[in-house]
Design a protein that fits this description.
13 helices, Aspartate Aminotransferase, domain 2, binds pyridoxal-5'-phosphate, alpha/beta, single chain, globular, Aspartate Aminotransferase, domain 1, seven-stranded mixed β-sheet
Length: 412
Amino acid sequence: MRGALSKILATSEGQQMSDPRQHIMPVYRPPEEVFVQGEGPYLFTEDGARYLDFIAGIAVNALGHAHPAMVDALRDQAGKLWHTSNMFRVRGAEELADKICRDTFADRVFFTNSGTEAIECALKTARKYHWANGNPDRIDIITFTGAFHGRSIGAINAGGNPKYLEGFGPALPGFVHIEWGDMAAFEEAVSRPTAAAILIEPVQGEGGVRALPDETLKRMRELCDQHGVLMILDEVQCGMGRTGKLFAYQWVDGVEPDILCSAKGIGGGFPFGACLTTEACGEHMQPGSHGSTYGGNPLAMAVGNVVWDIISDEKFLAEVRRVSGTLQQSLKSIADSHPDKVLEVTGRGLLTGLKMKADPKNLQGLCRDKNLLVGVAGANVLRLAPPLVITDEHVREATRIMDEAVTEWAPA
Ligand code: PLP
C-alpha cells in the first residue's frame, strides 16, 4: 500500500493521526516507550516513568547515562572544536592511542565510528599483512557459528548467518565458517594454505552470550602460531571492562591477539570504535590503504579519553568483577528456583544472561512492564549487559523483578 492513506493510523477514539515512525526504515521493531533522559543505570520516559537499564544500549553505556565526567568533557570540547578530518593531527586521538597501547598488546590503533568499521579495518589489515609478506593467496577469514560482527557486506559475510545474508547477493569468497567449539574443524581450516586469520568473539553476544573456554582460546592461539595465521578478536561487545578485565583476552595467560576490534563501551554512548593491531600487522596499512572522514574526531576522542581513564583503572575493574559475582549468584538462584523454565546462566562478568527453555521475547516484555530493561540473544537467552557502574542494590532490584517475571512467564 502506498500514499497518504497508508500513513494514517486510526486511534482507539476514531481520530486520525500520522505514525511518527512512518519515515524510519522499518528494520527495527522498538516498543512504544520513548526515553528522554538518563541518569546512572536509570532511564526516564516522556511521562517520567523510571526504568532500570540492564541492557545499556546493547553493552554501550558502560558508565551509565549522563556520567558527569563524560558530559563535562563533551561540553568542553563542543565549545572548542568539533571536526577537522584526518587531514590534520587530532591531539585527543594521539593521546588515546598512547593509552590503548600502554594498556594492551597493541602498537597501532585506527579509530572508527562503529564496531562494524573496526571489523572492516581488521579484515583489510589481516589480508594486507599476508599480501605484504608475499602470501597474496592467504585471504580466508575463519569464523564461527553464532558469530555477529556487524551489518556491512563484509561483516555479514564474516558472520555467515544465513538470515542476515538473505537477499543481499552472492556470498563473498574468502570466509570459512565452522561450528563454534569444533576444534577438529578448526585445526583443519587453520592449516589450509589460504587461511589468513581467525575472527572470534571471546564471549559471543548476539549468538547467545556464550563464553569461549580459556583453554580453547589458548589452543587456538597455538594453532594460529603454528600455521602463520593471525588471530583477530572481536571485543566490540565483550571488551572495555565488561567481563571484569579491560579486554576479555586478558583473562588468558600468554594469549594476545594480533588484531582486536573494540567499539560500544569504548565510547560509553558516543559512537566510535577502534581497530588495535601489533606493529607487524599495522605497519602495512600505509597512506591510501584505509581511512575515515570522522574516525577519531575531536568530540569522540574527548569522551573516549575520559572513558578509558575510568575503565582502565584496576580498582574500577576489581569492582566490576565483584559486582558481577553478585549478579551471577543471584541469577543462579533464579535458575535454581525455576528449573522448569531456566536451563542455565550464561556469559562472563556483566555480559550474562539466562538461557531459557523457550523463546524469551515475551519474558523481555514482562520485565519491561515491570520497569526493567533487558535484551534477548540467540538460542533463547535473556541477555543482560548493564552499565559497569551498577551496585549491589541495582542487582537486587533487577533480579527481584526478573524472578517475578519468570514466575509469571508462560512460554509462547
Ligand atoms: N561485533 C560484535 C560482537 C557486536 O556485538 C556488534 C554489534 O552488536 C558489532 C560487531 C557491530 O558493531 P556496530 O553495531 O557498532 O557496527
